[in-house]
Design brief:
With 115 residues, the chain is α+β, with helices and mostly antiparallel strands. It is 24% helix and 17% strand. The two termini are 22 Å apart.
Length: 115
């Protein structure tokens, strides 16, 4: 597993979303935060629960999938593939955003083979 190091990383789990467009452009989003904590306020919660603390305590800008979509924009996302590194599923909120942006495929924990 790849470990990302940023000065704004999530204390629980750093996640990266890489969007590869039909034109082979790359857009990368992280689940970084503006107020990173040394201990995650969700540390005792199961995966998928307690996300409200990500925003209220850590000032997380969004999940990696959401951030990547916003960076790329709808026009570039239509028909694109999103590679999600560091997580095994997408939450309902991110699934909705990816659908709205036109992401065609999601691949988990595999880096894209870019030529």
């Amino acid at each position: 597993m790849i470990k990302l190091h940023t000065n704004r990383e999530c204390a629980k789990q750093t996640v990266m979303a890489i969007i590869v467009t039909k034109d082979n452009e790359l857009f990368i989003g992280l689940n970084d935060c503006d107020n990173p904590q040394s201990v995650c306020p969700r540390k005792d919660y199961p995966t998928g629960q307690g996300y409200e603390y990500c925003k209220s305590v850590c000032s997380q800008t969004g999940h990696a999938e959401e951030n990547a979509c916003k960076i790329a924009g709808i026009e570039r996302c239509i028909g694109a593939t999103l590679y999600l590194i560091g997580h095994t599923y997408c939450c309902e909120h991110c699934e909705k955003i990816m659908q709205e942006y036109g992401i065609k495929h999601v691949i988990f924990n595999k880096f894209p083979d870019i030529k």
